[in-house]
Write a structure and sequence with these properties.
The protein has helices spanning 6-21, 31-38, 42-70, 72-92, 96-110, 112-124, 130-159, 162-182, 198-206, 209-239, 244-250, 252-268, 274-297, 303-330, 336-361, 366-385. By secondary structure, it is an all-alpha fold.
């Protein structure tokens, strides 16, 4: 067993999660060009993100129990290998059908990194001390998708949309090699549990009200970001006339918002418990949802009328993600893998539903998209209100 230092463990897990999460956003500036190349419309193109979320959510339920039974490290390595294989299928796909199949495979592998990463950190953290430890992993989970569009826009301009997937495959392969060499196991053999009675165990988690409220707040806000990721390329590139590079650079404001929220969460974690932080962050995000609907209803459709409310959401999400994750996993430390898997399933499943709805209403204008955004932030706020 490798004796990995705590700092190196956090860094490696954060990088693995960042690589897997880039699959949701690096290609976003390419969506209009990819849709034209594969001869599909915007609604069908948005399903490339929805398909990823579906595969990611479903495989969370498998990755968690496997990580509790086989150990964290082999599941993480296997997931990265599957991620690389699916990414290569996407890069070479001549049709939308094959591309969607590749996205499902890619998502199945990508699901292992956040599930196992959260569980590994919970293995080595004591109850109540997880919020600060989750900050870096949470930054990787939320900031890497926001950093993807600027880089993806530049790749599209110079190398074409398929190059984004070749580069993702290369990054996944490099991460696989580094994890294999440097990352040790965190779950002792005596602490492993056989994956039996999964339905009963998942139902028991769903019966835990505080756990579900933490997960609900996280999931609805993550779905709000998914709505922006799915509709943003068409709103900014196809409707507002931004170039792919300019659209990508606008996403830097989301990174700033999320990082600011994470910094606030890290500072306040010394004085506020996870439930209080979740309530505060969800209230901030709701303000973003209200602002988006108000601006859209007033007939304002500019880059800032769309982007500014999303930045407010990312500010709140930056506060909710580390504290909500720590709070949820602290409820069930003996089965952190299972609890992390169900959290991921619900979170990404909500994003899949949100992007599907947003893609369906996109053709009717900005106001319906803004209403979806508000409904998700309001739902997160309602969940957070019940967290104690």
């Amino acid at each position: 067993m490798r004796d990995t230092s705590p700092g190196l463990r956090v860094a490696l897990l954060s990088l693995a999660i960042a690589v897997s999460q880039l699959a949701t956003s690096l290609y976003l500036p390419s969506l209009p060009a990819m849709a034209a190349d594969l001869q599909v419309g915007p609604a069908a193109a948005s399903w490339t993100l929805t398909a990823f979320y579906i595969g990611f959510a479903a495989c969370n339920l498998v990755a968690g129990p496997l990580a509790d039974g086989w150990g964290r490290r082999p599941v993480l390595l296997g997931g990265l290998g599957l991620y690389v294989a699916g990414t290569l299928v996407c890069a070479a796909s001549p049709t939308i059908g094959l591309f969607l199949a590749g996205r499902l495979i890619q998502a199945a592998g990508a699901s292992a990194a956040p599930v196992v990463g959260r569980a590994m950190l919970r293995d080595v953290q004591g109850p109540g001390s997880g919020t600060r430890a989750m900050i870096w992993v949470s930054i990787a989970m939320a900031a890497s998708p926001a950093l993807g569009p600027p880089l993806g826009g530049m790749i599209l301009q110079t190398l074409g949309w398929r190059a984004t997937f070749w580069l993702l495959a290369l990054a996944g392969l490099a991460m696989l090699a580094v994890i294999f060499v440097a990352l040790g196991e965190t779950l002792a053999a005596s602490a492993r549990t056989r994956p039996h009675g999964l339905a009963r165990r998942y139902l028991a988690l769903l019966g835990d009200g505080p756990y579900c409220r933490f997960v609900g707040a996280l999931s609805f806000l993550f779905a709000g970001l998914g709505v922006f990721f799915a509709t943003g390329p068409f709103l900014f590139i196809a409707m507002l006339g931004f170039s792919p590079v300019a659209y990508g650079l606008l996403n830097i404001f989301n990174v700033v918002g999320y990082l600011a929220g994470s910094i606030v969460a890290g500072r306040l974690a010394r004085r506020m418990n996870p439930p209080a932080l979740v309530r505060l962050g969800a209230g901030v995000a709701l303000a973003g949802g209200v602002a988006m609907v108000a601006l859209a209803a007033a007939g304002l459709f500019t880059a800032w009328s769309v982007l500014a409310p999303v930045v407010v959401l990312t500010l709140g999400f930056g506060m909710v993600l580390p504290s909500g994750t720590a709070g949820a996993l602290d409820r069930h430390p003996a089965q952190a893998g299972l609890a992390s898997a169900l959290l991921g399933f619900i979170q990404v499943g909500a994003a899949a539903a949100g992007t599907a709805v947003a893609g369906a209403v996109l053709g009717y204008g900005v106001v319906p998209v803004a209403c979806v955004f508000l409904a998700l932030t309001a739902s997160a706020w309602l969940c957070a209100r019940g967290v104690r």
